[in-house]
Fold:
Amino acid sequence: MKRILIDMDEVLADVYPKFLDLFEREFGRRPEREEYWGKKIYDLPNADWIRERLHDKGFFADLPLMPGSREVVQELSERYEIFINSAAMEFRYSLQEKYDWLQEHFPFISWRNFVFCGDKRALRGDYMIDDHVKNLRHFQGTPLLFTASHNAFETDFIRVNNWEEVRAYFRGAV
Amino acid sequence: MKRILIDMDEVLADVYPKFLDLFEREFGRRPEREEYWGKKIYDLPNADWIRERLHDKGFFADLPLMPGSREVVQELSERYEIFINSAAMEFRYSLQEKYDWLQEHFPFISWRNFVFCGDKRALRGDYMIDDHVKNLRHFQGTPLLFTASHNAFETDFIRVNNWEEVRAYFRGAV
Structure:
């Protein structure tokens, strides 16, 4: 069975709504998509404070699912070995929150198939779905770039814009 | 730089003293080495209750260092890329405790090089130091079996009995 490594933040979990809520609460306005599309959302003016909130207890506990992620991952898990990985090791509280989040939203994936790491260079698989070029660049299997604002203009990888496109890709894959 | 993957429990951290303390407190006597050598310590009669303690908050927080582990890992980190990994994903509270334990005892290893997982088949490196045959068996690099009671009679792998032997092995390795 071939192995797919699937990233969490901005792939399975949608981080932007929470970030935008925090921004709006702090600065009284919600940034427009054009302000951050093509850039890191954390590079918005004055957003350093919001970036720091990722270290707070609870930040990762209640992130919404990326649309379609659960259904498509469940389908894929019938034909592939799924490993869910996250490089959020920088955020100490995130470990337990991510563990609980996965058990809540992806109960059909065993904890045996969770990987929490810092750097993803030590991971091995046949496919990697990730929004960060730095993770895909070192991967020895087939990398798939999941669209996020910070990678919008990257052209070096096969791109999947959403979970429908992931489904379509693997329907065509061997 | 070649990459060494190093396991935590029973390799960097010494789990047995804590296990034996709990056994002694519960049953009024400390098991002799002959009772568990060559077997899983958790298979001692009535030890199920103690095995369950691994799920308790705090179990992994104060484990002693395996003798020599810090010094030898520090030496190795000058010539190799060190990734510390642990398959304790089964124990929900262990994640944060292991993170803090590593930052306390191995401050020269970045959190970028920590990997917490369930199954180690998705890991990649040049060497793996581990006490579990099931982890070494699937590894594509060079596996080194770190002696623990449960693997005492295994003969399929290069064996290192302690951290002095790890040091000696890598002094001779390319």
